[in-house]
Amino acid sequence: MEPKETPVVAVDTLRSPEDYFVNKLNFTTAYIKCNAHFETEKQSQQVTAEIKIKKDEKIIISVRFLGITMAKALITPTQVQYYEKLNSNYFDGNFEAISQFAGTDLDFQKLQNVLLGQAIQDFPVNECKFDKAENGVKIEKNSASALITYFFNSANRRLQKQIIQQQAQDRLLTVSYPKFSSYNNLIFPVNIQLNAVQKQAKMNLNIEYTDVTLNEELSFPYAVPSGYKRIVIN
Question: How far is CA 113 from CA 55, 98, 106, 109, 205, in A?
């Protein structure tokens, strides 16, 4: 489905953080095709991927290289499963694996929000610090576990960047959204840039959505190939 450029809306009435937490996407399923570039200090890889979302219920991600499925993940609110062909390994557990990969504590809803270009979590207005920033506003929530900062564009109320800092764990995750487009009148990110830093490890992931199809019947097949070895993440 061809995207349309994000419409610009008036901003005169935007006075508080709650004005920026209203851009929820109303859909049942989303099928996303994308290109991704993954980079660490030890490796760099360009792949294609498919992301299927049954909103609030399950997400399946298939990663391909030269047309061959090299990894697949099935994620639900209670479970994370994935396998990868390079080392013939698979994982079946909780969100600890994704949290370590992303550099911040994640759950299903937070991951879904990241993929949809939305704030990783909303906060009550009285718990936020609300300031002006370049091209928009900055909304900040500080707690014992993390400092979360959102940067929104005032012209369209879209999230430009979110930063999650956990000083106790020496973790920092930055997620940027340079551009959004409209599919069936719903606004999705075109590009997602993730930068995770934890202790001495760094990871960059650049995702470019090439097509988004909404509200079609989708299947979510997942089966670990025989002979794969289960890995345990402590």
Answer: 10, 14, 10, 6, 16
